[in-house]
């Protein structure tokens, strides 16, 4: 009997996120911890992960004059004391995920070029490395991730060619791919990130704990095994 080849395909995990979204970096870490946990299983689930573009604040200027408290207080109309309390809470949650957020250093910026860079990196097989580098640079190092020169420097660090990266960003060659991701998010009804679409049928919203990902992955992989036996 010939088995359906689809049952052996990896589980797809499509992640809509913004590199300037603090919960997206936390959610990424929690997913990675969940994946590490299931990797120890006797029949470990196989996965393919793809990041997709989502802009939380597309109207943000490339060079915002002010700190993160200034931005959120103005953008959301929240009192500064409330913003500071919120950022303190997020910093604590990030620390539990192993991330050292530095909102005092953070340089708020428009992220569309960073998303273009992620699509360029994806074409070179380095999307995951670029995603990690951008988020780390933004949240823990106070690096600027909105200007082409700064993005080229970060791209070089993960092994991308400087000239090719600059050409891709200056020509906006990957902007259509960014817009396509955003259109797909709208079609799915995604209004906030991070948002994880697993196997094109299960949606997980927010920075869920590692166990949430473990449970879904083990359940899906088990069902595939049952299909093989059937």
Automatic annotation (TrEMBL):
CDD domains per the UniProt record, alphabetical: DsbA_FrnE
Pfam families: DSBA
Keywords, alphabetical: Isomerase
Any one GO molecular function term: isomerase activity
Domain DSBA-like thioredoxin: 13-217
Origin: domain of life: Bacteria
Name the UniProt record assigns to this protein: DsbA family dithiol-disulfide isomerase
């Amino acid at each position: 009997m010939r088995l359906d080849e689809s049952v052996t395909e990896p589980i797809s995990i499509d992640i809509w996120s913004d590199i300037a979204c603090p919960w997206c970096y936390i959610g990424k870490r929690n997913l990675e911890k969940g994946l590490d946990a299931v990797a120890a299983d006797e029949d470990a689930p196989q996965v393919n992960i793809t990041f997709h573009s989502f802009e939380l604040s597309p109207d943000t200027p490339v060079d915002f004059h002010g700190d993160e408290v200034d931005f959120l207080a103005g953008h959301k109309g929240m009192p500064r004391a409330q913003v500071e309390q919120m950022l303190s809470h997020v910093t604590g949650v990030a620390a539990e995920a192993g991330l050292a957020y530095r909102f005092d250093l953070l340089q708020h910026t428009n992220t569309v070029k960073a998303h273009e860079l992620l699509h360029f990196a994806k074409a070179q097989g380095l999307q995951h490395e670029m995603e990690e580098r951008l988020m780390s640079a933004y949240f823990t190092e106070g690096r600027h991730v909105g200007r082409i020169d700064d993005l080229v420097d970060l791209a070089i660090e993960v092994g991308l060619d400087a000239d090719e990266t600059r050409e891709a960003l200056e020509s906006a060659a990957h902007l259509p791919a960014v817009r396509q991701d955003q259109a797909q998010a709208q079609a799915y009804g995604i209004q906030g990130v991070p948002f994880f679409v697993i196997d094109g049928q299960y949606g997980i919203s927010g920075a869920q704990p590692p166990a949430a990902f473990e449970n879904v992955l083990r359940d899906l992989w088990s069902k595939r095994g049952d299909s093989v036996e059937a």
